[in-house]
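Hello, quick one for you while I still have it in my head. A protein chain has come my way and I'm curious about its shape. I'm sending you its amino acid sequence along with the backbone structure tokens. I'd be grateful if you could look everything over and explain what you see. Here's the protein in full, and shout if anything looks odd to you:
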Amino acid sequence: MTDILHYEFMQNALAAGLLTSLICGIIGTLVVVNRIVFISGGIAHASYGGVGLAFFLGLPVLPVTTGFTLAAALIMALVTLHAKERADTVIGVLWAAGMALGIILLDFTPGYNVDLMSYLFGSILAVPREDLPVMAGQAVLLLGLVATFYRGFLVMSFDEEFARSRGVPVDFLYFLLISMVGVSVVMIIRVVGLILVIALLTIPPFMAERHTRSLSGMMTVSTGLSVLFTVTGLVVSYLTNITSGAAIIAVASVGFFLSFLLPHRTD
């Protein structure tokens, strides 16, 4: 089994998977406890516009997609804060518009020959080594921000009104959280694709929430589960020659349903 690690593409895939798992555990926990899964889904699908823009302009995919996704994420954050009654509609429109823009730009890209499925369902086995330092930098940035503002996120996540009364900058932290989700989504797309990104971002934290009593504990358990699902799915994908992103989510889904057979914490 260890022979597969002799291949450079498997080493790259494993490194990308571990970095993504770390982010899924930390940022995914904040997504679940703040109940912004729908917004995260909108960000994920809108990010496809960034993929199309990168290929249309002939620029590196990762930085262009990150910038585009951050812009879409900030618009969604602004709408959800100041027009909550219409937030679901606007997010749905941005969701669809981002996808449509990406497809149209790819149609207009001269000599476009990139496999569309790799961005929809992931291509972790094709992650190039030069992308790893960028992903590592993104991971360090996200972890640094969470560590710096951890107390604020903790209070905001469980009692927003109390947080405001204590002078916690809730609006700033909300914009920061949505921005971090945007960066995280770009990383996770490389592993499981934009269609499956929400599953990897939410399944491990949901499972962790049932068995932990603190935000930090939830992040730790969620990260461990993400690593387990990603590595197991990667091995299954290699051995059975099936799509890696789908294999990872299939493993996570099995774990999700099995978790209901286990006792959970009682408050």
